[in-house]
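BACKBONE STRUCTURE TOKENS:
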Amino acid sequence: MERARPDLVGRYLLDPSLPPPGELDALLATGKVRYADATDAIPESARILHSLSPLDPAAAVLDLWPAAAEQRHLVRSATAYDFIPALDPERELADAPERARYRVRFELLRSARQLHVLSHSVARDAWRLLGRGPRDVVVVGAAPAPWCAPASDRADARRRVQARVPSLDQRYVLYPTGSHPRKNNERLVRAWALLPAPILASYQLVLSGDLPASTAHHYAHLARSCDAGASVTTTGLVDDDLLLALYQGADLVCFASLAEGFGLPVVEAFACGTPVVASDRPPIDELVAPEHRFDPEDETSIARAIASHLPEAGGPAAGAPSGARTAARSDAIGTAPTWADVATRTASAFDALLDSSRPARSTGHGRSRRHAMAFVSPLPPSPTGIAAYSWRLVEELRATGAVEVDAFADGPTPDQRAPAGAALYRARSLPEVELVRGGYDSVVYSLGNSHHHLGALASLRRRPGTVIGHDVRFTNLYRHEHGYPGLAPGGFARAIRAMYGAALPDRLGEEGSLSDGDLDRYGVLMAREVVASSERFLVSSSGAARLAGVDVGSALAKRIGILPFAFEPPVGGAFADDRSEPPHGLAGPARAFWGASATAVPAGTPVVAHFGIVDPAKEPDTLVAALARSGDQLAGAVLAFVGPISDAFAVELASRASDAGIGRSLLLTGPLAPDAYRSWMERATVAVQLRRSSNGEASAAVGECLASGVATVVSDLGWARELPGDAVVRLPVPASADSLAAVLVDLVRDEPRRAALAAAGRAEAGRRSFASAARALLEIVESPATSGARRRDVLF
């Protein structure tokens, strides 16, 4: 959850009566971990309290649902692993006090607004036992631990097991089990004794789990009494290293349980590449195909399933031909889910719960009404990516049905447009429109570091609101504000002194701008006034939040929050331009492909592409040098810079490519219409999106590449550093041409790796949709803004 949606969880609460649950270093680093009895356990931003152990009879009821949560009117949700005791109370709850404790917790669970379960069968149990509907019960699933992986050598894994389990000296069938009667251990031992003699002579049955010595002795005695000799052994409770080796070294896992909530050992075995036969009982039947299941109450059925899935063991097994057994073993290895999948489903469930639990607002006449929002931003056709981003965000805000949006077009571009259904005004008209309208519930400013946002800066000083900071550095915005002819000179320097006082030299900004050297030397961001004037200042990453916090100081840092950056495949508008003439002096393929779509590239040609504005800060020289150094390994590949580029830099870049010996491989498209831009993204083999530094911005071009399924190389800094490691290839800053060349050669040649990157990129895009960003923004602006805290927190 913390990797997928760090914005969603406000605290991870520990039971002070128990030891910590495993390694917590990564979570401790977030600063969110508290003991449940801490004074600040429940933050002001919390809206949901989610319990991961709601039916634990050892936990006090007041710990499961603390009084502070009741007083704060938090929404209650919980994870229910199974309802086995409720389904069979005579057997499972024979002890009267234990039954009473369970019933109290069961009723507490009934009052939860939302239940998370691990399987569809448990979901059906919840519907029947609790009277809940499908909307209230969400199947989130479960996954094996990250350490589960196939063995490179099964025999070597078996030797590692035998070194720690002296009683094990043969190949074996594994059952990860426990001592509870529903684990069905006795019946499995009796079934094992029915196997043909060659199998009993070649294999052992290993029962691994929390089995007391007396219980282990019982199973050994049962095996001898059934003429299975010493072929049944137990390990007791094992650590993760031994459990992994047990999975990896087994020829088969036999999961004979009579009842489960999920069946985690099954997917652990799958993740370790070990075939599985299992009980034909829910929810195991959701994991294992019918041909690999058996009747767990029929010893003959269990024995037949085991025998038919073992390799040849000195003779025919259960009458099955060898080829049939080989195919059965191969088919018995299923697909293991991942925790990323579970986290995504869980986050979606919490988003839906947050949306459904938002209190209705009143007009004062007893009627609920929709949230009224003013959204100030440049809009298409403004030549800035923020315009296209704001358009999509406004579209999705309106699609929620919970908000009315009036758009206020910012910047000098004429004829700006708003999405259907949104009223359109000029940014400078905000005070008058709000007065006539009778006020807005919220004002949102979409702010970047250019002259397209001067109207938002002026309005923000008069009317505080929520700022979506697409950058954390605003030096260029202030330079434009004070750089128009006719203004008194020195305004830019005065703005710097007003923010930073004597902390910076008086001379800074006297020339109306800041040199690259001054920016590097003093780290000037000029974010202080914007954050101070805002109710909240929302950035796209935790790195950007830290950067802004350094600039504005601890008092204002409380207003800084994170609104995850949304992205999707390019839909048009970002770089549309009517210009078709290439720069004077540009020659060769660089000129021939100017304004062209990717259909002009011959089929089968590898395309290494850079998307977006072509600027020296994005290290195009490194990309040119890398392609040159790849030599014959990328012979025939082309290097395409897809997006706007200044005339002078286009000629300069083409000259450098010619000097490096790849002049005929360099393609420059210049600004493109949406369809042509999209065609290059669909055609690209690899995208390279490097940067020398970060000002807290997120890259729309990187997001479009991921959403389009393009294998993408990025610089390991800023927003890109926080993307999932399986979705991008990261290079250190600054990247060397040699290291980039090696990565390009590898990616162009390795189609499976590109496919894996593409799948992970699309998955990340699914998590970062504009619809989810709109819902998150609406939650934020509807919450009190005293400290700028995000009120989407879930407590675990």
Notes: The domain at 154-331 is CATH 3.40.50.2000 (Rossmann fold). The first strand starts at residue 9 and ends at 14. The chain has four domains: 9-139, 154-331, 362-562, 589-768.
